[in-house]
Specification:
Jelly Rolls, mainly beta, 25 strands, 3 helices, six-stranded mixed β-sheet, globular, eight-stranded mixed β-sheet, 392 residues
């Protein structure tokens, strides 16, 4: 029985059209994956047409956990890098490749890697343990590393409220390059869910930074899932030098580490930076609406300005002000007490307008120990402040 002419024509059209269409599937991007559909051992003119399908190695969403992000690779490239496939990407031509370190200590060699405690999503109860994580320099144009504390709960010292280390746990970072003493705190602990931290890195050396988690002698549950993102030197997400945190957008919320845990931390010196958006020249700061004790950094029940240098304080470059009781000449950057306001001695929260200095920033400093009549750490929570940028 012979073939009908219509069926033969259809077969010929499909035979030549499908490879041709596949050769045209090419995504833009400097870093991309070449996907071979015919396998590494197939040769010939026809099947070589399948070798040019490309797609950018962008972030993708994990199928098993939509809150986690992976990198879009071909299945072969994912396996070669030691990743785990978890869903599809690039219209089905790639797989979402997940990188997770779930051991005590390890080396990060891929962008978008998660560091998790060994029992995650459960908690670990091991005490007196040190876990070190090194960040390899995966590209010469890496200038910063961003840590996102998706889920991080560490114990504070029960005998010294707000103390990280000793009987409590501590999370510390190391940077081969830091141009400011306010670049990041000496150690943090407590409840850090949703917080983040930037680490500055030079362009030289094998190591771009490090992270150390130490558990103290206090029994308790610890758990952490920390996302590691490498920030390119030319990225819009690169923070100004000396910033522990970097916020974008015309409005947002800035909180001190462990504000969720309800306890201000000791020995903190770091800077929150806000990207100046186009067409905006200043920013306004005020206590986060609806949050109880949104500003609680020192013992004074009223708002205090400028006379804060011997206690915990927040600094915001701001305009000089005059109130009914005193005239303050010059900068009025310092804020302390339990009420945030532009005026001295207020019992009702108010807003504060910054100067036009850039970058927009909020610095935070706390003491190492209580100071009689000024700072009692057990009574202090930290701060949650909202900002709104003001058009020029």
């Amino acid at each position: 029985m012979g073939y009908h002419g219509s069926n033969l024509s259809a077969c010929l059209i499909l035979f030549f059209t499908i490879p041709l269409l596949l050769t045209l599937i090419e995504a833009k991007g400097n870093k991309s994956t070449n996907l071979s559909l015919d396998g590494p051992h197939r040769t010939g003119k026809l099947f070589s047409l399948f070798n040019v399908v490309r797609f950018p190695n962008e972030q993708c969403i994990s199928r098993s956990d939509p809150t986690m992000r992976g990198t879009c690779f071909s299945q072969i490239n994912c396996q070669e890098r030691g990743g785990t496939p978890d869903g599809n990407c690039a219209s089905g031509f790639g797989i979402c490749c997940m990188f997770v370190i779930q051991t005590c200590s390890g080396t990060v060699v891929q962008n978008c890697t998660y560091i998790q405690n060994m029992a995650f999503p459960g908690s670990d109860t091991t005490v007196s343990q040190t876990c070190n994580f090194m960040f390899n320099r995966i590209d010469p144009n890496i200038c910063q590393i961003r840590l996102d504390f998706d889920t991080t709960v560490l114990q504070t010292d029960p005998g010294l409220p707000g103390m990280c280390g000793g009987a409590g746990d501590s999370l510390t970072v190391g940077s081969p390059l830091s141009g400011s003493p306010f670049a990041f705190p000496s150690a943090i602990c407590g409840t850090l869910n949703g917080q983040h931290m930037y680490i500055e890195s030079s362009r030289m050396g094998v190591t771009a930074g490090s992270l150390t988690i130490e558990t103290g002698t206090t029994p308790g549950n610890r758990r952490y899932k920390i996302k590691v993102t490498y920030v390119d030197c030319h990225s819009e997400l690169r923070a100004p030098s000396g910033c522990a945190q970097f916020f974008t957008g015309v409005s947002g919320t800035v909180t001190s580490y462990n504000f969720q845990g309800g306890q201000i931390l000791r020995n903190q010196d770091y800077t929150h930076c806000i990207r100046q958006e186009e067409g905006f020249c200043q920013f306004e700061v005020f206590e986060t609406p609806g949050v109880a004790n949104a500003f609680s950094v020192s013992d004074d029940a009223l708002s205090r300005i400028q006379r804060c240098k011997n206690q915990n304080f927040v600094t915001i470059p701001s305009m000089a002000v005059q109130d009914f009781t005193t005239i303050i000449i010059g900068n009025t950057d310092y804020r302390c007490g339990m009420v945030f306001s532009s005026q001295f001695g207020q019992s009702t929260p108010g807003s504060l307008l910054s100067t036009r200095d850039t970058p927009f920033q909020i610095q935070f400093h706390t003491l190492v120990a209580d100071r009689l009549g000024l700072v009692t750490f057990a009574n202090l929570k930290g701060f949650s402040l909202d900002y709104s940028q003001i058009p020029c």
